[in-house]
Amino acid sequence: MEISGIKSRLDAIRTNQMVLRVIQHLTDFWCHSVIDLFFPEVTIKRSRPTTVPQSNLPRMNERIRISPIRVVSATGEMLGEMETAAALRIAQDEGLDLVEVSPEARPPVCRIMNYGKVIYERQKKTSGPKQHKTQLKQLRLRAKTGQHDIETKVRQARDFLVRRDKVKINVMFKGRENAHHERGIEMLDEVVKSLQDVATVEQAPRMESGKMMSVLLTPLKH
């Protein structure tokens, strides 16, 4: 008896809740109708469904509903008119997309392509070339470095300068070599002369830390 009584009460509560919802809806409708009738200048903000903006992307693959279509292959060859399902199978077999390129045509024209690659290339063109960030490259020589090795360092420095990087050439002195700093000046002068078509001297040859002579080169301004 107690269980059946509880069930009856729950049913009554549910019924009352449903009645209250109906009354609330009717009251809202009645209030809006009365206000619109007697006070037309009053605007009541009513909730509206959110509208989803239309995508600018073309229809592609399964989103192409119309059939038949005129199909262009990935290489630009006109494959002619065919059913959309058949064209989609061709694109899928090649691992590509079927993209609607002329929706206004009758029948519409669709092309088989790698659409992701097309978008990437388009964004790459619009963004323009990336700006190179200048870096400081350092090359080391010894007072006893031979002519062949000096020429190798010059070629490396030229590559850096062409890429718009600064280059610092260091001549290291060890032990008795410190008595021949003029050799370092000769080496650096030779390097500067070899690179004068692509670089200018930002810092002239000078001793640093007592054991190193250096010159700093910067790319020529175009």
Give the secondary structure arrangement, pairings included.
Blueprint: H1 2-38, E1 69-72, E2 78-82, H2 84-93, E3 97-102, E4 109-113, H3 115-127, E5 136-142, H4 147-162, E6 166-172, H5 181-194, E7 199-208, E8 212-219
How would you explain this protein's 3D organization?
Among the domains are: 61-127, Roll (Ubiquitin-like (UB roll)); 136-219, Translation Initiation Factor IF3 (2-Layer Sandwich). The strands form 2 sheets. It has a 4-stranded mixed sheet with strand order 2-1-4-3, covered by helices on one side. Strands 5-6-8-7 form a 4-stranded mixed sheet, covered by helices on one side. It is built from 5 helices and 8 strands; from the N terminus they run αββαββαβαβαββ. The protein has helices at residues 2-38, 84-93, 115-127, 147-162, 181-194, and strands at 69-72, 78-82, 97-102, 109-113, 136-142, 166-172, 199-208, 212-219. The termini are far apart. Helix content is 41%, strand content 23%. Residues 41-54 have low confidence and may be disordered. It is an alpha/beta fold and 222 residues long.
